[in-house]
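Attaching the record inline, Q. Sequence:
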Amino acid sequence: MTVDFPKSLWAATAPERPLSAPLAGIEETDVAVIGAGFTGLSAAIEARKRGHAVTVVEGKAAGWGASGRNNGQVIPILTSAEPDVWVSRYGEAGKRMVRLIGNSGDVLFDLVREFDMQAEAEQNGWFQPAHSPGRVKLSQKRVEAWQRHGFPAELKDAKACADLLGTEFWYGGMFNPTGGHINPLALAREMARVAEHLGAVIHEDSPVVSYERVGSEWVIKTAQGALKARALILATNAYTGELAPRLAPRIARSVVPVLSWQMATAPLGDNLRQKILPGRQAVSDTRGDLRFFRYDARNRLITGGAVMGSFDVANRVRKKAAKSLAEAFPELGVPEMTHVWSGYIGMNWDRFPRVHKLGPDGWAWVGCNGRGVALGTSLGRELARAATGQPEDELALPVTEPHPFPVHGLIRRFAPTYLAWLKRQDHKEINL
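Structure, as predicted:
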């Protein structure tokens, strides 16, 4: 029994994990989790730590979806969901959400350290360099906002930025020392190992076809079995409608799955390694057409990008990302990419993640918007606390109703053209 993974660098380097047995027959548990990515596995670990029986049902394998395909950057802020807006929109729940986001880097790395997870984890900070002088003002505004809420954001000027990156290509920016990077597939597999060690049951190769509330329990069905549970956590995010389109259609249509392309260079030699990004931080800049990169444990630069259209996408995005690296780091030249892969991220219209109640003791969240590594891990812990009895008014769960996109299929088809608008915005200077 095997599940094919995309031919990514992570699939080539993460420790192997034998698949657990599919769900067969009828089982019972206290907390059922659908999806074995960062959210689902974090929830399983927390539920077991709180003494509750938990069963995870995964359609493919642990880390097969977005959790095992991303760049591996641990980023303790969101794309454009600023902290003060959370508070103005959701009040006390928004304040708790700001604390969850701001602490999300530490939550992930503390979990890695607690269980000695072998995930190439480096908590050496995350940096968002500004790609124009006006964006430095945006960086300053963001730094001040996060500092008001008690988090250690720092503003780097042009010289400090150049020292940190090894190039004068950017103008300054925001630095957060609690961020960093991991091997995401290794982390997912290690989280699965820890969950099982704590007593959680994981069933892989078991696509869930439906769930419903029957009396006082949830009934989760697969092709070969059923799971009955008091509480349910739906942890499928961008892949909610991919394996079983009818699983949760309103939630699936409330986000647009967008392909995110990742790639890796060959390992850099010591001379270049010491010049380019000498502190090994994770980096993603202020562009909408994002430039992002970090090292892995073998000194490869892990980067990525996006292009419009569907023709020869992998080759085009490879060339674009290589050119972007060469533009920022001329001494690197145009690097050859040894691995290129992709996976979905869940985007929504305002880039605010959404938390939903499915019914009594039923929870879900969607809309990572490219920030799912740290956020998914922290929200998984929070959803587990809700599912095991902690009062909702103590948790960072600003609940809303799903709002599906009209003509979702059409929007999904044309979502890549959004990149053209982002590029235009990147060339416009902003005044704050």
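DSSP finds 13 helices and 18 strands in the chain. The two ends are 56 Å apart (CA to CA).

More tomorrow.
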